[in-house]
């Protein structure tokens, strides 16, 4: 099959890590007889340098007409880069925010996986880390408190700030459907996280999720309060498969879940709309401190490419092949600098990409 992929290499380490992910995808294409076509588009600082703005209308159109977008990371050193002297709407990050909005990406997926051989990097107690974990945090990205009405007023000389948390049932339903669909491709368990003992929006969330669950009888649904979930993530992370939650809870829990893996260079992510389309990128930034030095870990981007195959192209076997190749390379003791430990073999960005490619 043929797939059109819009590729945003971005800034800093972006071109290096996307280059390695493309190398892996080309090998997958050869082995499984697919034709992955890449169209390079500019966003962030790289686009500012050429067009004077972080995202052009033409770039948005190219992204919209592709099957998926594979991205590195954007942005530069926020204290020294001239991009940050520009007004906020012309800075690199403004491009990404606009692209997410234009593509209607309402579902954010962040897997948090602890690889057995990297368990030493996990900040949790040894007996907890030894259990391993493999979960997917699914966060609603375009509603809730961050998008509600807000204002600051003064009443009788006292300042008062008001933020509004709003969800309608359609917004909840579409993310819940995504959550159950993803769970069907995994261990078939959804933990829906809310604060239903206090918030009306959470009570609506819980009832809509329960309704959606009826269409997925194979998936086990449990409800968990957000405060309990924050505790369980450090106490017993192995219990989770898909964590489904609203915007602000997801913001906090996904950072907590990624921190317990202990390795930023390994964390993939995806943002999806209500079709099969998605934007796939590592969770980390553009790491300007190590850009161009062949030091960056390309695995987060390579695993993001695997997510693209699984969730946008329905190529589960091919995604499995990438994930297995990553695991094999780690099991053989190869590491980039960020995940290096005593007794392992340190390799650069390119070598890591090649090792994974060879094992597809
Ligand atoms: P960062 O994630 O880029 O870097 C934090 C630290 O982690 C650095 O020491 C870096 O060297 C290291 N690191 C990150 N990715 C790595 C990898 N793949 N391999 C090895 N080490 C890695 O965060 P930051 O320094 O706060 O931000 C740098 C720039 O990235 C900023 O301009 C920020 O706005 C941007 N940013 C972009 C995105 C995105 O594109 N979605 C996300 C976060 C930050």
Describe the structure.
- Helix 1 links the parallel strand 1 and strand 2.
- The strands form three sheets. The protein has a ten-stranded mixed sheet, with helices on both faces. It has a two-stranded antiparallel sheet with strand order 6-7. A two-stranded parallel sheet has the order 13-14.
- The protein has helices at 14-32, 45-51, 57-64, 92-102, 126-129, 169-184, 200-213, 226-235, 247-261, 299-312, 316-331, 349-358; strands at 2-10, 35-41, 68-73, 107-114, 133-140, 150-155, 158-163, 189-194, 220-225, 242-245, 268-272, 278-282, 334-335, 345-346.
- The chain contains twelve helices and 14 strands.
- The radius of gyration is 21 Å and the shape is globular.
- The chain binds nicotinamide-adenine-dinucleotide.
- Residues 13, 73-76, 78, 93, 96, 264-265, 281, 284-290, 296-297, 300, 338 line the site of nicotinamide-adenine-dinucleotide.
Task: Note the main attributes of this structure.
360 residues; alpha/beta; ten-stranded mixed β-sheet; two-stranded antiparallel ribbon; 12 helices; globular; binds nicotinamide-adenine-dinucleotide
How does the SSE layout of this entry go?
Blueprint: E1 2-10, H1 14-32, E2 35-41, H2 45-51, H3 57-64, E3 68-73, H4 92-102, E4 107-114, H5 126-129, E5 133-140, E6 150-155, E7 158-163, H6 169-184, E8 189-194, H7 200-213, E9 220-225, H8 226-235, E10 242-245, H9 247-261, E11 268-272, E12 278-282, H10 299-312, H11 316-331, E13 334-335, E14 345-346, H12 349-358
Helix pairs in contact: 1-10, 1-12, 6-7, 8-9, 10-11, 11-12
This protein binds nicotinamide-adenine-dinucleotide.
